[in-house]
Amino acid sequence: MLCLGIESSCDETALALVQSGKLVHEVVASQADVHALFGGVVPEIASREHYRKLGPLFDSLLEQAGVAPQQLEVVAAARGPGLLGGLIAGMSFAKALALGTGARFVGVNHLHAHLVAPGLEKELRFPALGLLISGGHTQLYRLESALKLELLGRTLDDAAGEAFDKVARMLRLPYPGGKYIDVLGRQAQPDPDVFPWPYVDNQNLDFSFSGLKTAVSVYLEDKPELRPELAYDPEELARQPEAYPALARLCASFNYSVAQTLRVKVRRALAACPQVKSLIVAGGVAANSLIRETMQTLAEEHGMEVRLPRPSLCTDNGAMVAYAGWLLAKAGYHHPFDVDAIPRGRKIPWDYLS
Ligand code: KG4
Ligand code: ZN
User: What pTM was computed for the model?
Assistant: First the structure.
């Protein structure tokens, strides 16, 4: 079964083909440079860029893969949560294509797609514990199977990626800043006492990162040397990350605090779900090297397998949408054409037809 996946929920327009659970080909157009000028994603610009890029990307994907539109059996598009305009652009394109080719249409929950993405690399083992850490979400799930998920905990305020990006902004690092904090943090040892591990002194599986962001802001108040007038040049930072030792130490300490907070909550979730056989870490922040190491060690301590997708499968991509769409279609699910896109903050219903 050949499935096209379309991702357009934020600032990447990404399309991919999955056949029999394997990635055939993928194409992506990132808008990061466009939004970098504003220091964050501008929704209206994002929608227009998706609308502009979808057609040409689709043509080049099919040409590079040597596939004709009539061969598509399933067309899947991210349905939400995300920025509404971008989701509508992707879903409209997918619906028109399905209508024109006779393929089945499947709306995919973007968070579900992140969580099952590592299944593209190697078969997933269930039940699994899923830690989803992205720019918009920080959640813990118990996955009974690839299609049966139960939410165990979520962030009460900022998502982990949002905390990375907001702290990066305070430090005048380029947008999106998570990866620069990662790169710089690798150049120094963390000071474990500078920042708190937020919201761990409780019994629950929820997260709260806004206090950590405030702690960084307070720490920076009397350190003007860490808040330069001019923003850093991304190429210069990437070329010589070792040239900024004080900044590197701050990044290492912040990174450490996020990684330890996640470790505490994941360990607690593993204790609450003793039958779990594997740990899945997904979403853009799962590309973070310290968080990867920390989760690897935690899984080893529990004698279980950890699934850390390659970084390009962690950040938003079309392959995960195509794969989730393929899984759903294989199980007999699809959507009618009147299904809606769903913005951030609203629950995505399980309303597939079968
Ligand atoms: O999953 P994703 O691509 O988009 C959403 O669905 O939100 O996640 C984007 C987030 C951004 O906040 C970005 O800064 C963060 O992932 N990110 C990282 C790293 N790479 C991406 N955060 C920390 N370390 C990284 N290496
Ligand atoms: Zn995402």
Answer: 0.96
Which pLDDT does position 229 carry in this prediction?
83
| Alpha carbon nearest to ligand 1 atom 21, residue | 284
Residue 93, amino acid: F
pLDDT in tens, 181-220: 999 999 999 999 999 999 999 999 999 999 999 999 999 9
64 φ, ψ (degrees, to nearest 5): -65, -35
CA-CA distances (angstroms) from residue 96 to 51, 310, 320?
13, 32, 21
Distance 66 CA to ligand 1 centre (A): 32
Of the given ranges (27-36, 76-85, 265-274), which has the lowest mean pLDDT?
A: 27-36
The residue whose CB lies within 8 Å of the most ligand 1 atoms, and thus the one to mutate among 35, 155, 179, is: 179
- Collect all residues with Cβ–Cβ distance below 8 Å to 320 and sequence separation of at least 6: 5, 7, 113, 114, 116, 117, 120, 313
